[in-house]
Amino acid sequence: AQSVTQLDSHVSVSEGTPVLLRCNYSSSYSPSLFWYVQHPNKGLQLLLKYTSAATLVKGINGFEAEFKKSETSFHLTKPSAHMSDAAEYFCVVSDRRTGANNLFFGTGTRLTVIP
Amino acid sequence: GAVVSQHPSWVICKSGTSVKIECRSLDFQATTMFWYRQFPKQSLMLMATSNEGSKATYEQGVEKDKFLINHASLTLSTLTVTSAHPEDSSFYICSVGAGPTYEQYFGPGTRLTVT
Predict the structure, then answer these.
(1) A111 and A13 in contact (C-beta within 8 Å)?
(2) A64 to chain B, minimum CA–CA distance in Å?
(3) Do residues B112 and B93 touch, judged by C-beta distance below 8 A?
C-alpha cells in the first residue's frame, strides 16, 4: 500500500534562508514521487517529479528534492526562500505499477516566508 | 505538461439547486480525468475517475447520484452537483492524467458555495 507523511504541517522561514519540507513515503512497489505547490484559491502546480532516473531531481523555481530509498524520504529543498514561495506544498506518491489512477497525497505543508 | 481549465472559477448557489462545473483539457486528449474536492486547509480527496465514453468510477463514500460526471469528449468532463446543500460547499479540482510517468495536471479549481 502507498502512503505519504508530511512531517510538518507548517514551516516558517525568513526570506533568503533555506527551505526544507519533509516527506516520507511508503510504497509496495517502485514509486513515482511528486511535489506540487498550491497558492491560495488556485489549482496545483507540479514542482518536480521522481520516476526512477536520477535521485536528485531539480524542479521549477529553484526547488529540488532527493529520493532516498534507504530512508524512504523525498524532502523538498530550496537554497533561498522568496516571498512568492509562500504557499501550500503537497508531497504525492503513485505506484508505477498501477499508474496515475492512484495518487496518494500528503496532508500538505504550509510554507510561510517572513520578510 | 497538459493545460487544464475549469469553469466557473467561483459559483454561489442556493440550497436545492444544481451546479455544473466544466473541466477542459486544452492541449491534450484526455481519456481519463479526475475529480477531487478539497476542504479548507485539508488535502485533496479523490472523488471519482472520469473515463471518456464510459461511466465514471467513484471512490467509496461518494454518492454517484449526487455528483454526476459526464466525460463525453476527450477534452471535456463535467461534474454536476445535484440538489446542493451547504455541506457540499468546497473547492473542486479536476486533473488530467498524462504521460508514462503518471503525473497529473490540475485545473485551477472551482469554489462552490451553497447558501
Answers:
(1) yes
(2) 17
(3) no
Are B56 and A101 within 8 A, CB to CB? no
Read off the DSSP letter of residue A30. P
Q: Which three cell numbers stand for residue B71?
A: 466525460
In one letter, which amino acid is B24? R
- Percent of chain B scoring above 90 in pLDDT: 63
Give the count of Cβ contacts less than 8 A between chain A and B.
Answer: 59
Contact assignment for B103 to A32 by CB distance below 8 Å:
yes
B97 pLDDT more than 90? no
B103: pLDDT strictly greater than 60: yes
Collapsed DSSP state (helix, strand, coil) of residue A98: coil
Q: Is the dihedral angle over the CA atoms A90, B35, B103, A102 positive or is it negative?
A: positive
**Cβ contact, residue pair A44, B106, below 8 Å:** yes
Write out pLDDT tens, residues B42-91: 888 899 998 888 889 999 999 999 999 998 888 999 999 999 999 999 99
d(CA B6, CA A14) in angstroms, rounded, equals: 34
Question: A97 vs chain B: nearest CA distance in angstroms?
Answer: 10
Give the residue carrying C-alpha cell 516520507. A24
CB B45 within 8 A of CB B37: yes
**DSSP 3-state of A101:** helix
